């Protein structure tokens, strides 16, 4: 079977989900991109496909779980609007039980913005009670030393999220330079879309900084400038096949979580297309 046929098979599955209900809008069409025409032996990837909770910011956790199940995504980075930071132990237990019923794992929490030591204390205590080993965070620059002590205390990895040219952490390099001499559990959540908006190549930065990249937010954007916006993964300027090849080259073992910022009130068509495209690329190269 040719790689092109395998790609279409995978991507079509995503499109079928997207078009399954008129409630969520009309299906869209993904591009194939620069895919190899020769099918090689199946690759057992070390990385996993997940979802950033922010994608479903307009939906409660029950609706979110339903959509994750429909697109066959089994890893979720938890946002506090789905599991509040002041949740009781019983509420946390029930939350995990809901996920487990659909074979979904909440693998991390965040992004969480932290501007004071008290907010850092709260975030680490929250992650510990939720039972995850990674926090996606955006700390105030003056607090890096304090965060560094907390990762030692809790043995939880801290992945700083880059947010493009408007942000104090625009790209992977801006974070690497701040964490490279700190505890090895201080690292990055590489947002490939914002990295591209900051004018940096996501695959090249993955190669440079993979030893400190603990989480990845996958997406595509319309332009490699600050004016770029999130779009379906097969339609933007990021070379997704090249990025997948780099994930394999550096043996990335974390989660690639789709963060789909477009269509917040009606995300499922674009999410399904993007996940279908990403799975198709993985299967085809």
Give the uncertain stretches in residue-range form.
1-38
- Average pLDDT across residues? 89
Beta-strand fraction estimate: 15-25%
Q: What global shape is seen?
A: globular
Tell me the radius of gyration. 18 Å
* Termini separation: 13 Å
Summarize this structure briefly.
With 285 residues, the protein is an alpha/beta fold. The chain has helices spanning 3-18, 61-70, 89-101, 117-130, 144-154, 172-179, 192-197, 202-209, 240-249, 268-284; strands at 48-52, 75-78, 105-114, 134-139, 157-161, 186-191, 213-218, 220-221, 230-231, 255-258. It is 40% helix and 18% strand.
Can you walk me through this structure?
By secondary structure, the protein is of the alpha/beta class. 40% of the residues lie in helices and 18% in strands. It is built from ten helices and ten strands. Strands 1-2-3-4-5-6-7-10 form an eight-stranded parallel barrel, surrounded by six helices. α5 links the parallel β4 and β5 (157-161). α1 runs antiparallel to α10 (268-284), α4 (117-130) runs parallel beside α5 (144-154) and α8 (202-209) runs parallel beside α9. The longest helix is centred in the last third of the chain and has 17 residues, at 268-284. It is globular. The two termini are 13 Å apart. 45% of the residues are buried. Mean pLDDT is 89; it is low at 1-38.
């Amino acid at each position: 079977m040719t790689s092109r046929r395998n790609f279409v098979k995978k991507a079509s599955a995503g499109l079928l989900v997207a078009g399954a209900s008129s409630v969520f809008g009309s299906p869209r069409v993904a591009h194939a991109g620069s895919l190899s025409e020769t099918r090689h032996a199946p690759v057992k990837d070390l990385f996993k496909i997940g979802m950033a909770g922010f994608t479903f910011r307009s939906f409660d956790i029950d609706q979110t779980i339903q959509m994750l199940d429909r697109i066959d995504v089994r890893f979720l980075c938890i946002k506090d609007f789905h599991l509040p930071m002041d949740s009781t132990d019983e509420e946390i237990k029930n939350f995990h039980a809901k996920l487990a019923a659909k074979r979904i794992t909440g693998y991390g929490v965040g992004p969480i913005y932290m501007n004071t030591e008290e907010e850092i204390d709260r975030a680490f205590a929250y992650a510990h009670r939720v039972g995850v080993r990674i926090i996606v965070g955006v700390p105030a620059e003056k607090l890096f030393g304090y965060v560094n002590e907390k990762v030692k205390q809790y043995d939880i990895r801290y992945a700083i999220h880059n947010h493009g040219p408007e942000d104090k952490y625009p790209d992977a390099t801006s974070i690497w330079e701040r964490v490279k001499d700190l505890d090895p559990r201080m690292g990055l959540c590489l947002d490939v879309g914002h990295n591209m908006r900051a004018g940096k190549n996501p695959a090249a930065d993955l190669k440079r900084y993979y030893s400190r990249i603990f989480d990845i937010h996958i997406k595509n954007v319309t332009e490699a400038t600050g004016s770029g916006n999130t779009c379906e993964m097969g339609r933007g300027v990021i070379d997704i096949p090249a990025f997948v090849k780099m994930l394999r080259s550096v043996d990335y073992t974390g989660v690639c979580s789709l963060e789909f910022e477009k269509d917040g009130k009606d995300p499922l068509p674009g999410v399904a297309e993007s996940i279908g495209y990403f799975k198709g690329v993985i299967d085809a190269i």
